[in-house]
Automatic annotation (TrEMBL):
Protein family: Belongs to the binding-protein-dependent transport system permease family.
Membrane topology type: Multi-pass membrane protein
Database matches in Pfam families: BPD_transp_1 (PF00528)
Record region (Disordered): 1-21
Location of this chain's protein in the cell: Cell membrane
Signal peptide: none
Transmembrane domains' residue ranges: 36-57, 99-120, 129-152, 233-259, 290-309
Name assigned to this protein: Sugar ABC transporter permease
Location of the ABC transmembrane type-1 domain: 95-306
Annotated keywords: Cell membrane, Membrane, Transmembrane, Transmembrane helix, Transport
UniProt biased composition (Pro residues): 1-12
C-alpha cells in the first residue's frame, strides 16, 4: 500500500528571485533619482515653508491690510500703510539712527576683527591663550552681554566710572543721548568681532610666507605688503564678513532692548525697535509690517549692491575709476 507525497508549496516570489541570483532593486532606483531626491528634501522644504515663507507672506498680507486689534477684522488697504510710514518723521528719525548704528558697528567690528586676525597670524608667547580668550564674547548670550555692559557703563558704580575717578576725571554717562549709539555699537562689535577674527584668520593662514619675504626683498613697506599681498587673499571673506555684520546690525533688536530700551528719549530707537513698538505695543500691525518690509528691501538691495561692487574684477574697478 503506497502513500501519496504532496508537493511542497511554491516559494515566495522574492525567495525565487534571490535563489535565481537576481539582486533586489533598491527603492531609490525603482522611483528614480529625481523623485527620490525630492522625497528626501520634502521634510526640509515643509519646515522652511512653515517657519520662513509663511511668516514672511503673512507679514506682507498685514502690511497691505488695515487690522482692528480688538475685533481682528481686516480690510485691504493697498499701499496706504507704506505711504503712512514713509511720510512719518519718526520713521525717518529711526532710519537715520539705524544707518548711524550700522556704520559704527561695521567699522568697529571689521577693524577689530582684521587687527586681531593679523595679530594672531604671528607667532608669539601666549598666542593659544589669546585665541581662547577672544572667543569668549561670542559665546555669551546677548542678554548676558547687555547686563555686563550695563554695569560697565554705569556712571555711579560702573567699571569705567571707577577708572575715571581713579585718574581724577569726572565719570561720564556713555548711555546718554549724545553717545548712546556709539556705546551700543561698541558692545555689538565686541560681541561680533570674534567671528570675523577666526573667519579672516583662516584665510590669512593660507598665504605663503615666501610672498612676504619677496616683498621685503623688493623693498615693500608694511602698508604696501598688506595692500598687494594680504588683501587679495582676504578680499572675498572680508566682504562676506562686512555684509554679515552690517546686516546683523541693521536687524539688531535684543541688545538695544536689554541695554537701553530705545532710550534715552528715543535716542537709540532704531528701525527694529520702532517696528517692535509699533506692532506689539501700539498694536498697529499694518504700519509695523510695512516698516519691516521697507527695512528688508533696503537691506537686501544694499547687500546685493555691495557684493556686486566688492566682487567686481580689479581691472573693471580701475577702468570705472579712470572714467
Amino acid at each position: 500500500m503506497s502513500t501519496a507525497v504532496k508537493p511542497p508549496p511554491p516559494a515566495p516570489t522574492d525567495t525565487v528571485a534571490r535563489s535565481a541570483g537576481r539582486p533586489r532593486i533598491p527603492f531609490s532606483s525603482r522611483i528614480g533619482p529625481t523623485r527620490f531626491g525630492l522625497l528626501l528634501v520634502a521634510p526640509v522644504a515643509a519646515l522652511l515653508v512653515a517657519i520662513v515663507i509663511y511668516p514672511v507672506a503673512y507679514s506682507l498680507y498685514l502690511g497691505l491690510s488695515h487690522t482692528n486689534p480688538f475685533t481682528g477684522v481686516r480690510r485691504f488697504a493697498g499701499l496706504d500703510n507704506f505711504q503712512q510710514v514713509l511720510t512719518d518723521p519718526d520713521f525717518w528719525h529711526s532710519a537715520w539712527l539705524t544707518v548711524y548704528y550700522v556704520v559704527c558697528v561695521t567699522v568697529l567690528a571689521s577693524a577689530v576683527a582684521l587687527g586681531m586676525a593679523l595679530l594672531l597670524r604671528e607667532r608669539f608667547v601666549g598666542r593659544p591663550v589669546l585665541m581662547a580668550v577672544i572667543v569668549l564674547p561670542w559665546s555669551l548670550s546677548t542678554y548676558a552681554a547687555a547686563v555686563v555692559w550695563r554695569y560697565v557703563y554705569s556712571p555711579q558704580y560702573g567699571l569705567l566710572a571707577a577708572i575715571a575717578q581713579h585718574l581724577g576725571f569726572q565719570p561720564v554717562d556713555l548711555l546718554a543721548k549724545h553717545s548712546v549709539i556709539p556705546a551700543l555699537a561698541l558692545v555689538h562689535a565686541w560681541q561680533f568681532a570674534p567671528l570675523g577674527t577666526y573667519f579672516l584668520l583662516a584665510s590669512l593662514q593660507v598665504i605663503p610666507d615666501d610672498l612676504y619675504k619677496l616683498g621685503k626683498v623688493d623693498g615693500m613697506g608694511i602698508v604696501r605688503r598688506f595692500r598687494t599681498i594680504t588683501m587679495p587673499y582676504i578680499r572675498l571673506p572680508f566682504a562676506i564678513y562686512v555684509v554679515l555684520v552690517g546686516g546683523q546690525a541693521a536687524m539688531a533688536f535684543d541688545l538695544i532692548y536689554f541695554l537701553t530700551s530705545g532710550g534715552p528719549g528715543g535716542a537709540s530707537q532704531t528701525l527694529t525697535y520702532d517696528i517692535y513698538q509699533e506692532t506689539f505695543q501700539d498694536l498697529s500691525f499694518g504700519p509695523g509690517a510695512a516698516m519691516s518690509w521697507i527695512l528688508l528691501i533696503v537691506v537686501t538691495a544694499l547687500t546685493a549692491g555691495y557684493y556686486v561692487a566688492a566682487m567686481k574684477p580689479k581691472s573693471a574697478r580701475g577702468k570705472a575709476a579712470q572714467a
